[in-house]
Amino acid sequence: MSRRPAAVFALAPWAFADVFPPDLVARLRQLVDLDPATPFTSFDGPAAAALARADVLITGWGSPRVDADVLAAAPGLGAIVHAAGTVKATVHPVVFERGVIVSSAAEVNAVPVADYTLAMLVLGTKRAFGRARRYATAAEGDPRDWLTGDGTGLHDCAVGVVGASRIGRLVLRRLQSFDVEVLLHDPHVTRAEAAHLGAESVGMDELCRRSDVVTVHAPALPETRHLLDARRLDLLPDGALVINTARGSLIDTEALTRACATGRISAILDVTEPEPLPPGHPLFALPNVLITPHLAGAQGRELRRIGEFAVAEVGRFVQGRPLLGRVAPERLPYIA
User: Which UniProt keywords apply (predicted)?
Assistant: First the structure.
């Protein structure tokens, strides 16, 4: 570039403040011209003048969709650096057709999701959440901590991983530190690749029949909707645990509610369908179900890592180097 490149922020003010603290903004200023006081949430009005000279668009949570109209207003745009996870809702396919490079911090955001999943695997198989409630409300003389032969704990479990996505692969890597049998269902992964990941490749029905724990890490696609339906939930062995940190549509909520209400299986859900569940939904009242408000991804102090990655990506772009988080256009339909 013959002139100093310019960057524009397009994300919610809260995300801008948490992902890009002042020292990271200062680092960005060494790379590009920018106005950190105006993270846009709309491409109308004042944003139009900024887009006209933008070489880099830095998007994130709360960004409006980048489509053909936005590209027309930003004729010099060369890269979109997404300081969040999935770009599916942010980037229209026409962006790739125009030759704009798209990068996502999905790999960075995957780390806390995998960590959350592992924590839930450990705590969930110990039945920690239900036992904590029982411990707090037990009458005098009732068991308060553990029962002999209750079959809890992750050791020697069969863990079924649904989807060898970024997060799924991180979970598979973490499971190698545990004495567990790992099963993997992913129609795009060969048996040899699954073995390299430390897992046995199996069909979805077989995974359900054999797994003490099923953890879901597949994208939301028409073919994955209600992947865990009533029939497959019935295949799970008694006492099985279902963990979902992916997308709520992968599990039939009504079927899961019925199965958990019997006490036969348990669930830990960071995502639901619908999301959020309506107040008073029966899943909230079940002692064998834990529902968290979509918090597995980057939160609080973890958000800084996304900002650091985005700043580094901008640096790589202006220096003409390959972007580490580059999104391949053919993968857009299959990402979460």
Answer: NAD, Oxidoreductase
pTM of the predicted structure, to 2 decimals:
0.93
Please confirm, yes or no, whether 247 is among the known catalytic residues: yes
- When the candidates are 3.40.50.300, 2.40.40.20, 3.30.420.340, 3.40.50.720, the CATH number that belongs to 109-291 is 3.40.50.720
Say how far residue 194 (Cα) sits from the centre of its chain: 21
Instruction: Please indicate whether residue 294 is annotated as part of the active site.
Output: yes
Average pLDDT over residues 305-328: 98
Catalytic residue among 210, 247, 308, 316: 247
Q: For residue range 237-292, what is the model confidence (pLDDT) as tens digits?
A: 999 999 999 999 999 999 999 999 999 999 999 999 999 999 999 999 999 999 99
The topology (CATH level 3) of 7-104+300-334 is Rossmann fold (3.40.50)
275 in catalytic set: yes
Catalytic residue among 107, 193, 275, 302: 275
* Residue of 53, 92, 294, 326 marked active site: 294
- Report the alpha-carbon distance of residue 235 to residue 243 in Å, rounded: 16
Intrachain domains 7-104+300-334 and 109-291 with the same fold: yes
